[in-house]
Amino acid sequence: MKQLGKRLAEMHLNGKSDRFGFHVPTHCGATEQDNTFEDKWSTFWTERRIGDLVRRLADADVTRLDKELRQHVWPILFSKETDAKIKPAILHGDLWSGNYGVGPDGTAIIFDPSSYYGHNEAELGICHMFGGFSSAFFRGYHDVIPKLQPHYEERQKAYEPALRILGDASQLYHHLNHALMFGGSYKSGATSIMRDLVRWGKSQGARHRADL
Fold first, then answer.
1. What would the DSSP string read from start to end of 183-205?
2. Domain containing 178 — which CATH number?
3. CA separation for the pair 117, 119 (Å, rounded)
4. Cβ–Cβ under 8 Å, residues 96 and 126
5. Residue 20 lies in a domain
6. What amino acid positions are annotated as catalytic residues?
7. Residue 33's domain spans which residues?
8. How many structural domains comprise the chain?
9. pLDDT tens digits, residue range 124-158?
10. In a domain, 212, yes or no
11. What is d(CA 110, CA 4) in angstroms, rounded to the nearest whole number?
12. 57 inside domain
């Protein structure tokens, strides 16, 4: 697992582009992803990933929460300073436990990608969603690519699994995608994450105003 984390980080470091997106659409499950190129990660994330799924779901609660995320959360998690530090990296895009294995020589391998050029941290989200990745995997990864601060943990609530802002997570993009494909509990999981993120964002705004 540590080797897999290390090799994934090395792939992120070496697969580069000057923009976020991909030259053709790719699929995450049955969902065709909007890979239109964008110059900034914050734009690609809010419009081509979260925003695209919100529009397709056409659900009143999800749409309302998306507006609150845009107002209270994304400007904090993707500040101008943080946005400038995020560089496009080639991602597997759908790295759950069924999409990695071990070759005959013992080498860790990944397959069945849903690739695009994005923020390397976004790759780690689905690694938590269904489990199967040990702490050694994340240690190996961050030995090569350190966590980007500030707000690494909070961004992971958007990228990675978390039904509560400080509890077990359940990644927002993939919950929205599963809600689009399967409905049911995935919608409630997605709205729970969105509400937790909005509460956190509002608390950060209140704290900032109190400091002024």
1. -THHHHHHHHHHHHHHHHHHHHH
2. 3.90.1200.10
3. 7
4. yes
5. yes
6. 94
7. 2-207
8. 1
9. 877 876 678 999 999 999 999 998 888 777 776 67
10. no
11. 9
12. yes
